[in-house]
Amino acid sequence: MNAIPPAPQRPVSTYLHKRPTTRLVALLALPMTWLVGVYIISLALLLVTAFWFIDPFTSKVIPGFTLENFVNIVTVPAYLSTSLRTLGIAVAVTVVCIAFAVPLGIYMAKIASPWVRSTLAVAITLPLWAGYLVKLLAMRLTFTEEGLFNWLMAPFGISGPGFGIPVTILTLAYLWFPYMALPVFTAIRQLPHNLFDASADLGAKGWPTVSRMVLPLITPAIIAGSVFTFSLSLGDYLAARFVGGSTQMIGSIIASNINLNPPVAAAFSIVPIAFVVMYLMIARRTGSLERM
Amino acid sequence: MKRSKLALPVLLAASALALAGCATPPASGGLTITVPDVPMKTELGAFEGELNIVNWSGFVDPKWVDPFTAETGCVVNSRVAGTSDEMVTLMRTGEYDIVSASGDAALRLIVGGDVAPLNMELIPNFSDEIAEGMKGQIYDVVNGKPYGVPIGRGANLLQYNEDVTGGAPESWDVVWEADSAYAGKITAYDAPIYIADAAVYLMYHNPELGITNPYALDEAQLAAAVELLQQQNSIIGEYWSDPVAQITSFVGGNTVVGTSWEILKKFAASENLKTTLPIEGSTGWYDTWLVSSSSPNSNCAYAWIDYTSQASVNGAIAMNFGMAPANIAFCATSAETQAHCDEFAAEDEPFWDKIWPWTTPIEECVDGRTDVQCTSFQDWTNAWVTVKG
Predict the structure, then answer these.
(1) Cβ contacts (< 8 Å) between B194 and chain A: which residues?
(2) I want to staple B330 with a disulfide (CB 3.0 to 4.6 A). Which of A135, B132, B315, B318 is the partner?
(3) pLDDT tens-digit readout, B281-313
């Protein structure tokens, strides 16, 4: 019988094993430094500015306390309409992404051959490798008056909508689509095949199967994707600038005030945060966050 | 400044001052603006070896920076700004010595005490060769004290696609009136200072509003301008602040008429795009060098201003950016420079008489009115957001 080999020397593990508190601190030190030091502090510094004044004479920021910047958001009609317009655009982008992602996901996960499936997966993720501005300008070129869209559609007597809210929605949907398509595809892939068989055995055709079996089961994935599409759309301003025509979004107001009136810009940055929090609370009520 | 148009209010203001027995020295045009007392540099000292510039793209180039550094030992660090507002914000950090500000930023910096008055005796190259229309303007000469040295200027012209319009529009009404034939294909400059363009249009068509200077709007006049801008908003195709976007918009056919610069038309390189100055006149940007009041490198700053004021360097900057040079002695130096000056109307003072140089609106009316308070740039900024709704 051989002798028991000596235990390997692991001084760090041995030390940490006896001290759970040190272990916890060591584990969390780096992420907490990041979260508090970089993420929360800088956000708080920005939000504090929302309560400050601006000197009307020199446009310099003066520390103090006023709620006027927030009151303005709800009382100035232009501010209110911009907030609501941005909310509408973000909702529309999310709906468009869902409408495209679900059928595509079902096809990729359950119908397509492995080769087609991987080709589609690459096609969805590939645009993520291109720069954000490059994609915006590509959309701009596509939808200019003498651009690709009008050229392709001319034989059918269709002309593009021109720069405005519809093209903004389309562009944002294009930009954020992978964030919706990937979780939805993964969720549908995990659905067992025999659920589809059972659905067919019970006499359900395509649409009842999708609406009563697939959709309820992939709701957590849709919510996860929509958090991205919704919140990213709320904060965007370059799409409105490049393909929005005269469309103004919350981001446009923040961008144009960041130099001229930082308190108003800071107050406005609260609006998307409020919308996202409201959205997450609604999502929580439906219970889908627990299953994420 | 439109001396002719200002004559009456100036006289009124001057007599009001005289009646009040006011001891303040008469300002340029008899207008007095409250500014912080910032000391002026009295003599030049040793070069500090460093100069930090905030400038428009194309104003600082190795072609003329390298000889300057070789001569003075001042190493130039350039920071390119995209908008006037960014320039103001950067200058207020105190990290920069000098800025190539347009008039809409210059007066803000002067009134805010961010820049110092200049001792022109220390800038011998600033000479009589400076174009008449760029001397003693309200945006950089305040209370008789010069704060800026002119670099160059450009007008905000009406650019049109001749294939569509069939000829030059005579009036700006094609971009303002709701029944414009080009509704949906109109572009406008995306900044609060564009309110002045509405005011210029109203000055001509609605004289009952009593606007005498597009940068001196009382509350009622600003409201009228905003109303006009809101009317325009419904027929606007695109607002532009990025020159490249404006060029692609005209070339791509999305825009048929709208605000432009001579240089943008040149870059668009499209035969059917033309510019014109409509009967109402227009606004323009006049760029000047301003020196920070907290600059630790003021000797290098003065050396830079003096160096860039000579005809050859000033002209090189103007040609590189695409604007009319301030020092018109540059024009006669060669056939090429003369062609540039002609293209950008550098010596055509009657042309510039119809242009209102960008000036920051401040509470003290720059048209000389003292019985009302004018709207400040902050008011314009807030109004601009409501225009775009």
Answers:
(1) none
(2) B315
(3) 999 999 999 999 998 999 999 999 999 999 999
